[in-house]
Amino acid sequence: MDLKIDGKIAIVTGAGNGIGRGIAKRLAEERATVIAADLNGTDAERVIAEITATGGKGLALQTDATDEQAVSNMVRHVMEAFGQIDILVNNVGGGSSSALIINLPAEDWDKTIGVNLRSTFLCSRAVAREMMPRKRGRIINIASISGKIGESLIGAYCAAKFGVIGLTQVMAKELGRYAITVNAVCPGYVWTPGWQQLAQWLKDNFSTMADKSLEQIFEERVKAASPLGRPQTAGDVASLVAYLVSEEAQSITGQAINVDGGAVMH
Predict the structure, then answer these.
(1) Whether residues 196 and 242 fall in one domain
(2) Residue 198 has what pLDDT?
(3) Do the Cβ atoms of 87 and 27 come closer than 8 Å?
(4) Contacts from 157-160 at CB under 8 Å and sequence distance 24+?
(5) 201 and 138 share a domain?
(6) In the annotation, is 243 catalytic?
(7) Is 129 exposed, middle or buried (0-12, 13-18, 19+ CB in 10 A)?
(8) In this structure, are 183 and 195 located in the same domain?
């Protein structure tokens, strides 16, 4: 299927590793020009090097997506270089700690809300202002199934991702008149630093898990929660993102679509 995003200008935040890297590379494969924005500029440059080595086009930008001025600078740089922004993927996210709410430090709460929800707000606001005059655009927010069902030990992360889904719906309603679609993608069980941290907490606090590796703890959780019994990959998430930013998905907006092997059904 030709997704018809050839030549589109796409910003992917948190593109240096993991899911963001997978999304950036997939959009480049579909012949979009990819701006890999990441707090770690070296990681962003590495991803763009991988993209250009296979004939793709892109630009690396060191960006703190939680900082208003840094986001403004990112958007200004892209507009000066390319004159337009067609696609924004708000992928920056993660959790700062695993803890019961009663034990969660306020600074960890603030950090988690900031990196997940504040970044999505700042980047979407800045990019939407450039999309609106052209009356076209695609915004994808990477949420989580933890934004649909609360889970112990990751309360701040759940709250942030619930917020991302709510913000997605609001923006879809506000921007629809400008032919801008806004959707959320909700990954399930992808082996990420956040999952490693949670698995370590379980290992440290439950005697039944003390002798298990972090990978075993993760795999057991996946098998128990998912009908397909296997984890998801960055490529799985990237495939849905590529579809949602394409012309094929022009009538899909305000949705939060799971990529989770059936772990959460509705």
Answers:
(1) no
(2) 79
(3) yes
(4) 157/94, 157/95, 157/112, 157/116, 157/194, 159/112, 159/113, 160/93, 160/112, 160/113, 160/115, 160/116, 160/117
(5) no
(6) no
(7) exposed
(8) no
* Alpha-carbon gap, residue 103 to 98, rounded angstroms: 10
The pair of structure tokens assigned to 3 is 């997704």
Examine the pLDDT at 98 and tell me if it is beyond 90.
no
| pLDDT exceeds 80 at position 1 | no
Domain span at residue 111 reads: 9-190+233-259
Residue 93 within a domain: yes
Among 140, 130, 147, smallest CA distance to 71 is for: 130
pTM tops 0.90: yes
Q: Are 95 and 215 in the same domain?
A: no
Specify whether 148 is located in the same domain as 255: yes
Residue from 157, 178, 189, 243 carrying the catalytic annotation? 157
Q: Are residues 31 and 142 in the same domain?
A: yes
Give the list of residues 6+ apart from residue 66 with CB closer than 8 angstroms, or none. Answer: 92, 114, 115, 118, 119, 122
If one counts the domains in the chain, the total is 2
Q: For 31-58, what is each residue's pLDDT tens digit? A: 999 999 999 999 999 999 999 999 999 9
- Both 159 and 73 in one domain: the answer is yes
| Type and span of the H or E element at 45 | helix 41-53
